[in-house]
Amino acid sequence: MANKQTFLGEFEHVVMLTVLSLGDDAYGVTVRQQLRDTIGREVAIGALYATTERLEKKGLLTSTKSGASAQRGGKAKRYFKVTAQGIAELENTKQRLEKLWGLKTVSQII
Amino acid sequence: MNNNKPHPPRLALWLLDVTLPDTVKDDITGDLTEEYCGSTDTGLTKNKWFWHQTIATCWRFTMTKQKLTSIGLATLSILLFGLIAYSILFLSVADDPVSFQKAYWTDGNFHQFFFDEPLWQFIGANNLSQLTIDMFIHLPSLVWTVAALGLFVLVKKQFALSFSKQLLAAVILILLPYVGGVAYFSLNEVALNQAGPILALMLISALYLLLPFTHLLVKELKAVQA
């Protein structure tokens, strides 16, 4: 039987946690900076926006625009926020991963 | 923007402006500009970084799976169109009797013609000057083309077909006269001088249908992407 349940991809998971950690200041520049500083991951801006677009379509993220400045060439920032559905999905993912990490055979090796 | 401050390369900004979708254009351009202006690197390093980001971003948003499929489909379609057009030209003007002594003309193995030497020598000899429009006018093929396109549009609307099902339907409708012709040759003894109209229907109908179907499928891919 087909499994219709959706799962967060690894990069989606990482992006959502980063957005969550940044609170009200999560937009392209800060998300990339946070990923660089915390896990040493250099992320292409195109990859980031393709992922946030997908997450918004899934209802896991929302975004609002504000904060245009001269330093940004007059362009507004797109601030991201994790939705309640997104938080539930993160919790589910965490529980599933913890189950896997908790397997005896895994914990014997790592 | 302060004119005294260094600004990102204008050409790169223009490239971002023309290639990125409207939904992310301002966000990406703004983020890159902010990072560029906030950087303490030298101008050259900053410009190099900006160009690298621009090219990577433009590539990601232009070379999507749908666009690559569209390009592949269009290329294949144009190549097949050329091959079929040359085959029709060959059948219309080739005067080498040896070429027409091959069994494949009437025994149901017509596909061998596409791999046989005479056709490729003919293509290599560039006989395009002998091409005339009346070689490609064939009423039964025109009737089949109208019927096939009409049926395709009708079925697509009625059953809301997915892209892969539309592709399959298009391939079947393009190949049907060809397969029918091959079956007819396999089941009947056909003299070479009677094979012409059947071969014409097999080839010209495919020629007529290839580009309209490609157009419809590429349009469908664009709609899927949007």
What's the SSE blueprint?
The complex is a heterodimer of chains A (110) and B (226).
Chain A: H1 10-22, H2 28-39, H3 45-57, E1 61-66, E2 77-82, H4 84-102, H5 104-109
Antiparallel strand pairs in A: 1-2
Chain B: H1 10-19, H2 22-38, H3 43-62, H4 65-93, H5 111-115, H6 117-124, H7 139-159, H8 163-187, H9 192-225
Helix pairs in contact in B: 1-2, 1-3, 4-9, 7-8, 7-9, 8-9
How would you characterize the overall build of this protein?
The complex is a heterodimer of chains A (110) and B (226). Chain A has 110 residues and is mainly alpha-helical. Chain A has one domain: Arc Repressor Mutant, subunit A. Helices cover 57% and strands 11% of the residues of chain A. In chain A, strands 1-2 form a two-stranded antiparallel ribbon. Chain A starts with 9 loop residues before the first helix and ends with a helix. The model of chain A has no long low-confidence stretch (mean pLDDT 91). Chain B is mainly α and 226 residues long. Chain B is 75% helix and 0% strand. Chain B has 9 helices and no strands. The radius of gyration of chain B is 26 Å and the shape is elongated. The two termini of chain B are 33 Å apart. The chains are: A mainly alpha (110), B mainly alpha (226). At the A-B interface, helix 2 and helix 3 of A face helix 2 and helix 3 of B.
